[in-house]
Design brief:
mainly alpha, three-stranded antiparallel sheet, two-stranded antiparallel sheet
């Protein structure tokens, strides 16, 4: 199946946008999650072995040209074992923060035409998977083709969470009916409002509880409830974080990572 390129472009802006600053294709972050370095729109990394094939695909000359200081070591990091790669790239960091020279060169590499093309290949592949899941969901629900909103929601699921963990369209419909279509959004918002702590994610949750109460209906209500149910399958420590992300796509706006995101420009 072929996904509308404008839909893919929106997905590549929204999902990476939550995590990156500036051009998501040039993102470069340090060892904040134990993965060594995470680069590009979908945060491909050394620890999971997802960045190495991309570096090898563009070739050593491209790496050396974009990274005149660190390129030889980058090539070595991506040519050997994961442990060796982690050891090398952690040497470019202060704690879990990339030093400025290494970060600048990694951004330059990820922004080359060759690496942008490699990133786009992988984004397109994720988009195909997301569209397949969105189509299956929409057909199971009411026999219609998926909307852009549904596709974007599933793209975030595919890239960030893997899948639905057994949640079905019928389960979501039943959840809405049992909790009443005119009141179920209150259940979701009460959960967010009840989060404890002083972290930015908790502040986002409380802000979203106020923002999302009452306006959801139709597919936005369905997707908000899908967000709540899928978040419930996640680690309890991160359930409100998952819901902040997914709910923002469902509702077309929301607070994520301390910022109000509005997706009207993407048709949501």
């Amino acid at each position: 199946m072929t996904v509308d390129p404008t839909w893919v472009a929106a997905a590549a802006a929204i999902t990476p946008g939550f995590e990156t600053v500036g051009d998501p294709f040039q993102a470069a972050a340090g060892d904040f999650d134990g993965m060594g370095i995470s680069c590009g729109a979908l945060q491909w990394n050394i620890g999971m072995g997802s960045l190495q094939p991309m570096v090898l695909a563009v070739g050593r000359p491209v790496v050396l040209a974009a990274m005149p200081v660190h390129g030889a070591r980058m090539w070595e990091a991506c040519s050997g074992t994961v442990n060796r790669g982690l050891q090398i790239v952690r040497g470019w960091q202060s704690g879990a923060t990339l030093k400025s020279s290494a970060k600048a060169e990694l951004r330059a590499l990820m922004g080359t035409p060759d690496m942008r093309a490699e990133q786009q290949k992988r984004i397109d592949a994720k988009a195909e998977v997301a569209m397949g899941l969105a189509r299956d969901w929409s057909m199971a629900r009411d026999g219609t083709e998926p909307t852009k909103r549904l596709f974007l929601w599933f793209f975030d699921i595919v890239t960030q969470n893997g899948g639905m963990k057994g949640i079905t369209a019928q389960e979501v419909a039943g959840f809405i009916q049992v909790n009443r279509p005119d009141r179920v959004d209150d259940l979701v918002c009460d959960f967010l409002a009840g989060r404890k702590g002083s972290s930015g994610h908790v502040r986002d949750a409380k802000a979203n509880a106020s923002l999302w109460r009452d306006p959801a209906e139709g597919e936005t209500l369905e997707l908000l409830c899908m967000s709540y149910l899928r978040a419930g399958k996640s680690n309890p420590k991160w359930q409100h974080v998952v819901l902040n992300r997914k709910g923002s796509i469902a509702m077309g706006k929301g607070f994520v990572n301390g910022k109000l995101w509005e997706f009207g420009a993407h048709g949501l």
